[in-house]
Request: fold
Amino acid sequence: EAGVAQSPRYKIIEKRQSVAFWCNPISGHATLYWYQQILGQGPKLLIQFQNNGVVDDSQLPKDRFSAERLKGVDSTLKIQPAKLEDSAVYLCASSYGTPVREQYFGPGTRLTVT
Amino acid sequence: AQSVSQHNHHVILSEAASLELGCNYSYGGTVNLFWYVQYPGQHLQLLLKYFSGDPLVKGIKGFEAEFIKSKFSFNLRKPSVQWSDTAEYFCAVKHTGNQFYFGTGTSLTVIP
Reply:
């Protein structure tokens, strides 16, 4: 079974530029999560989708971050414009069933904002 | 708001030593509890989970954890660590709504 795919794996941009990350969850997984993991901290949930609907985006900085999950499969997370403090690893995870019993994580995208 | 505390930030042990990593959470209602591990250069992966029943749960690679409701704790243990256990360990809590809350992680280094 293929795992959660993410791209790119690494990205370096200057502040005020835009960036987008892509995630392809495990086939059949209805729930998709985006996390931000700053160095030395645990993953922090940014947004959670159930199929193509948003379940929780309370911690998403909506003035600069946006995410979508068209057709309830792939998802993209965008930052526009980026700030220095956005430097982090962005993790995508997916899960199946309700209630969710386990998450499966992708390899993450390491973003460096200079 | 939910919070998860991992008090040990860095732990260094010799091989064959016993391990216990602390995890405490703040939510008073029904929770599901997890330990995830991230080996160097690899994805986060599930070590073990607790949903209900026996509060002592066993996971992969000889790890176990005990849920103590009165202490809001879910400590991870292993009787004898190996060099290959060197990794970052994260405690996570889930309650209603399927949102997961992670601790800050504990970095474990096992010296051969």
